[in-house]
Specification:
This protein has helices spanning 39-47, 74-82, 93-106, 119-130, 155-161, 171-185, 197-207, 211-224, 228-231, 252-260, 281-295, and strands spanning 3-6, 9-16, 23-27, 51-55, 112-117, 135-141, 238-243, 265-269. By secondary structure, the chain is of the alpha/beta class. The protein has an 8-stranded mixed beta sheet, sandwiched between helices. Strand 3, helix 1 and strand 4 (51-55) form a beta-alpha-beta unit. It is globular, with a radius of gyration of 18 Å.
Length: 302
Amino acid sequence: MPQVTANGIKLTYESHGPKDAPVALLIMGLGGQLTMWPDKLVADLVKGGYRVITFDNRDIGLSHHHTGEKTPHILRHILLRRLGIRSKTPYDLSDMAQDTIGLMEALALDRVHLVGISMGGMIGQHVAAKVPDRVSSLTAIMTTTGNPKLPRPSSTVMKAMVRRGPQPTRRDDIIDQSVATFGIIGTPGEDQNTNGMRDRITRSYDRSFNPAGVIRQMSAIVASGDFRKVTRTIKAPTLVIHGDADPLVPIEGGRDIAKLVRGARMEVMQGMGHDVPPRFLPQVTKLMLDHFAATRVYSAAE
């Protein structure tokens, strides 16, 4: 699998579709490897005329792992942040945005359509603010601005995301736990065992398993705090997609982005949680393709 050096670290990526097509650069969320993007989404974007690039963020998958560095105590880190005290972390969202920009530079991508989901949407906002002349459009899916006044996840959701005590060590138990987590944060009524989620989680586990990296990524989100000042500077045409049943990143997060970015459009997915299950995928894909086409700006080939 190809790798490039970006922002001083190694990033693993995949490229799908013609190299001379406009580029859709997809940024995955917390703990998600590039294998977590639904194959159908990637295929349909390619069919729609785009070159699709996916990659592993730092500390996950086959990209650079911060081994040897102390893993933050996430619960203490969250508490201190709520008290206005910033703890030291290996990196934050701004650093991860610079990774993405470095990937663009390494692949000679002059302009891209950025798509970020959850944490990837936070990173995408930073990228769009840092290099406005290189972002043809931004699509922010089930994400937020770090605004401390917005609703927070419930205690049940937080317990699912940050589990105390001994963690499972057997492969099947780890996969079961991850699937169960999506049963809590995902779309109500979805069977996460049969809708493709278990398959993607299993593929990701067998490819790479780095739980300490997930904690460091979570710490990067916490350390970045309120970044509305970043969001306000975004100039790219922006589409916000958010489910009204999202218990992890409540819909108010998406509404905050739409309010802060001039001209942004928000699309609410009725009944969708913190995932994009098969029944919502065609609608989400069409929204993205329509948004890309509306910008009429094409990125350079590799």
